[in-house]
């Protein structure tokens, strides 16, 4: 299993291994070789948070059901969450990065939540994340629902995102 994060060359004012939640750093290949699987390319959104479950299942010989190599698991968990925690010892960081930031990503959309702002990108139209739409968490929620994201996956992510931004109005309760 191997993966890495990307390199920035000025996108969003970031350079090299600068930590961010933009696709410059996040949208990278994840290579997994499992002796019981034939090679294939999967273009689903996954999160490295789910790697532990795969490693655990492989180590214990439990099979791949319920891991990121299971298509049903990926369908039930189509949202990736990424967090950037501010490093106070990096004095020359741009002010917009001198705070903790969180993002939620589905195949077509991404929302980035800061303490003072929300950026929503329609990745299907703007894969470079050049222009935020000005939408809020409710718009991201509506787009995720319209794209079939299960409420069971959406509910905890929306609650997590709302904690990161003091200016967000309360979110509607996702239907079960």
Detailed description of the structure:
With about 180 residues, the chain is α+β, with helices and mostly antiparallel strands. The chain has a domain of about 100 residues. Helices cover about 25% and strands about 15% of the residues. It has five helices and eight strands. A four-stranded antiparallel sheet has the order 5-6-7-8, with helices on one face. A two-stranded antiparallel sheet has the order 1-4. It has a two-stranded antiparallel sheet with strand order 2-3. Strand 7 and strand 8 form a beta hairpin. Helix 4 packs antiparallel against helix 5. The longest helix is centred in the C-terminal third of the chain and has 13 residues. The radius of gyration is 17 Å and the shape is globular. The C terminus is likely disordered.
In short:
The protein has helices at 23-26, 51-60, 71-76, 137-146, 151-163, and strands at residues 2-3, 8-9, 15-16, 30-31, 80-84, 101-105, 109-113, 118-122.
Which terms summarize this structure?
24% helix, two-stranded antiparallel sheet, four-stranded antiparallel β-sheet, alpha+beta, disordered C terminus
Helix content: 10-25%
SS-based structural class? alpha+beta
Shape: globular
Extract low-pLDDT stretches. 167-176
Please work out how many helical segments DSSP would assign: 5
